[in-house]
Write a structure and sequence with these properties.
The complex is a heterodimer.
Chain A (H helix, E strand, L loop, with lengths): L4 E4 L4 H5 L2 H15 L3 E4 L13 E5 L2 E5 L7 H6 L11 E4 L4 H4 L17 H6 L4 H7 L3 H11 L11 H10 L6 E6 L8 H8 L1 H15 L3 E6 L4 H16 L15 E6 L9 H8 L23 E5 H13 L1 H5 L2 E2 L2 E2 L1 E8 L5 E6 L4 H8 L9 E6 L6 E3 L9 H6 L8 E6 L4 H15 L5 H18 L4 H18 L3 H5 L1 H10 L2 H4 L2 H4 L3
Parallel strand pairs in A: 1-2, 6-7, 6-9, 7-8, 12-16
Antiparallel strand pairs in A: 1-3, 3-4, 4-5, 10-11, 12-13, 14-15, 14-16
Helix pairs in contact in A: 6-10, 6-13, 7-8, 7-10, 9-10, 9-11, 10-13, 17-18, 17-21, 18-19, 19-21
Chain B lengths: L20 H14 L6 H12 L7 H8 L3 H10 L11 E6 L2 H4 L3 H12 L12 E6 L11 E3 L2 E3 L4 H13 L2
Parallel strand pairs in B: 1-2
Antiparallel strand pairs in B: 1-3, 3-4
Classes of the chains: A alpha/beta, B alpha+beta.
């Protein structure tokens, strides 16, 4: 009797959103009906999201991919002998050879999609916890030094050097310190945190544990948004398993060192992705932004020194400790070292996750990886860096993925999300939405953000209605300056970026009478 | 500003609320279980909403008393976060993503269709009590939008037809 063939069906939220669960059930039922020995493993997503549900058969010739599948395709797949890698119109060939995947440099996402994300032994077998083992042999300052030398900058959006933040927390004397993971991934066009938490949760746990060892913190908290129920389930189970197996708790790997984690769920407030507002929320308060200084690294959660980093930042630490700072630093360019998991989203043909060393151009991502727009119409604008990122026209598509290059064109890379719009987009409507979103999500602490965003919506409405446009535009630009200069945090301070970039690059959309505005 | 209606003297200290017995018990149990953990208020509000599907306004004085906070502090937190609700929702909560990535593939048209089909605006509940409609700003499914969330489950590439199927399923699954 031959061993069961392993069939991988992603349990990632995006794959499930387009039918992965029903496809898994169909494969199970069809295998049972035929008496075919099949073991279904629910893996993370490979990130080729337009091909989801993407199913892989583990054949003697390696893993062969099929997709996108519907339950109706399943009997035909069995007929075609897909368990042995048989030919079928939906066969994509060996997974690792699919160009979209092959042309990536996956460091942080190296394991995502390979295994059952909650299988701790599989995590170890693929290099997991080697970074922790290294860290356990190092002095705290030695860990911080390696993270600093790697050039890793905060992947949440602010791009602050992680090692410097850690050093500040290490040098702060206190009876209790904390590590907080910012998993409040609220930017539209981003999902890398979600994919990582669902697809490789132990990497985040390992990264946070290393951060704890580095700064002398024994407690960690993950602040996860409620909109991510799949990630919540994955993290809850992973934390429990890690604790049972001695990777969290009072006696890490038998060394007598301590670190433990808990998971907190947000409640639908974009502002809680701002680090000080997140800390307020963890303290059980309204998520209102704090004044800085003091920095959280000196006085953070409950007034104690706190390292607060994004999911991707923390999940990139294990490989740095395992492979060395130089290995990581040798990817990238300028002051942007290592890799960035980029998310191709919106109106894009091949949407998904592309982890590349810094230095790729936007154009390569949009056309070589992305394959152009999903609608087949010309790409007119892309928004990079979430709702606070600038709208970029085609003339700026040669910009390299690099923090400084984006800053130089008045944009920002943020958390690496790219949202694509075709030529039916109304950029004045997008500018209005930026102000509207700011008004909905403002924490209310500072006036430029709280009031300015509402006034911004009104001014854009008058501008679009053609009421004394020159005057309205001057007013809008002045309001943008006030928000940029006078806001306490990035929400009010960056909302003008999408507004001004829309105004600068697509002025015609603000001039047309409403009836003629709709294209297409 | 309107003047608030007169209330009982010193409500923070009062043991009496307008909660029914079950809601009162749920609230007290959540407080007792969680109040000693640091920053307990959000987890407590979550626990109550998980159990009751909303946080009754009448629970506020009780939570305040249990946590030794003022009613204003509890109300302030409860009203700050979009997720918490103080009115009982329909049997299922349907959230439509309004954020940019979904906009680029037709979220605005889906929104309009949803409101028309359900006969409600955001925060409204259908006449049969089946579905409450809410907006959400990103579900992390940005490559496969437009996206909606029905209770805990996320659906991608939702057009008008798929939306109607989702609604039909939600109504029939009790």
């Amino acid at each position: 009797m031959s061993a069961a063939t392993i069939v991988y069906v992603p349990a990632d939220a995006s794959a499930v959103a387009v039918g992965a669960d029903v496809v898994a059930a169909a494969i199970h039922a069809e295998a049972a009906r035929r008496g075919a020995p099949v073991r279904i493993v629910r893996n993370g997503s490979r990130g080729l999201l337009w091909l989801e549900p993407l199913v892989e058969a583990d054949t003697p010739a390696g893993r062969i991919a099929y997709g996108p599948l519907t339950p109706g395709d399943v009997p035909g797949l069995f007929d075609a002998g897909f368990l042995g890698g048989g030919a079928h119109r939906l066969c994509l060939g060996p997974t690792a050879q699919i160009p979209y995947l092959k042309q990536q440099e996956r460091l942080t996402f190296a394991r995502v999609g390979l295994t059952d994300p909650l299988d701790l032994d599989a995590y170890r077998a693929h290099g997991g916890f080697r970074g922790l083992d290294t860290a356990l042999d190092l002095e705290p300052a030695g860990i911080v030094e390696r993270v600093t030398a790697s050039g890793l900058r905060g992947r949440g959006g602010a791009a602050f050097p992680a090692g410097i933040k850690w050093k500040t927390a290490l040098d702060a004397a206190a009876d209790q310190k904390y590590v907080v993971c910012n998993a409040d991934e609220g930017d539209s066009g981003t999902f890398s945190d979600r994919m990582l938490m669902e697809g490789d949760p132990y990497a985040l746990i390992e990264g946070m544990t290393i951060a704890g060892l580095a700064v002398g913190a024994t407690r960690g908290t993950i602040y996860l948004r409620f909109e991510y129920p799949h990630a919540r389930r994955a993290l809850e189970r992973a934390i429990e398993t890690a604790r049972e197996r001695g990777y969290l708790g009072e006696n890490l790997r038998g060394t007598g060192r301590r670190f433990d984690l808990d998971l907190r769920i947000g409640a639908g407030a974009y502002i809680c992705g701002e680090e000080t507002s997140l800390l307020e929320s963890l303290e059980g308060k309204r998520g209102q932004v704090r004044f800085k200084p003091p920095l959280p690294a000196i006085s953070g959660l409950f007034g104690k020194p706190t390292v607060i980093n994004n999911v991707i930042t923390l999940a990139s630490v294990p490989i740095i400790l395992d492979r060395g700072a130089e290995y990581y630093r040798d990817f990238g360019l300028g002051r942007s070292r290592g890799t960035l998991p980029i998310q191709l989203t919106g109106n894009i043909r091949h949407g998904g996750l592309v982890e590349k060393a810094f230095g790729t151009t936007l154009r390569e991502l949009l056309y070589d990886f992305g394959g152009g727009s999903r609608s087949g119409r010309p790409i007119r604008a892309v928004q990079v860096g979430g709702p606070l990122g600038a709208y970029l026209p085609e003339s700026q598509f040669d910009t390299k993925i690099d923090y400084e290059a984006f800053a130089a064109i008045g944009g920002m890379l943020g958390h690496g999300g790219i949202v694509v719009f075709d030529d039916t987009v109304d950029m004045a409507a997008q500018a209005r939405y930026a102000m509207e979103f700011c008004a909905i999500e403002s924490c209310g602490k500072c006036t430029p953000c709280r009031i300015g965003s509402t006034r911004g919506v009104e001014v854009i409405d008058r501008l679009r209605a053609g009421e004394d446009p020159a005057k309205q535009e001057a007013l809008l630009r002045d309001l943008c300056d006030t928000m940029i200069d006078g806001s306490l945090c990035a929400l009010g301070g960056l909302t003008p970026y999408p507004v001004r970039s829309a105004l600068n690059h697509f002025p015609e959309d603000f001039r047309k009478p409403a009836a003629a505005r709709r294209r297409g | 500003m309107t003047t608030p209606a007169p209330t009982r003297a010193n409500p923070d200290r009062s043991d009496r609320t307008d909660l029914d017995a079950a809601a009162r018990e749920t609230t007290l149990a959540a407080c007792a279980r969680l109040k000693d953990s640091p920053g307990a208020l959000l987890p407590i509000l979550h626990a109550i909403q998980d159990a009751l599907s909303y946080v009754p306004g009448a629970a506020v004085p009780l939570i305040a008393r249990e946590l030794n906070l003022s009613r204003a502090e509890v109300h302030g937190v409860l009203s700050f976060y979009h997720y918490f609700r103080t009115e009982k929702p329909g049997r299922r909560v349907l959230r439509i993503c309004r954020a940019e990535a979904c906009q680029s593939v037709g979220a605005a048209a889906l929104e309009a269709h949803a409101k028309r089909r359900l006969g409600v605006d955001y925060h409204g509940t259908t006449a049969d009590g089946a579905i409450t409609l809410e907006a959400v700003y990103c579900l992390g499914n940005c490559a496969l939008g437009p996206s909606v969330m029905i209770d805990d489950s996320i659906e991608g590439r939702v057009d008008a037809q798929r939306f109607d199927e989702i609604v039909a399923r939600a109504r029939s699954a009790r």
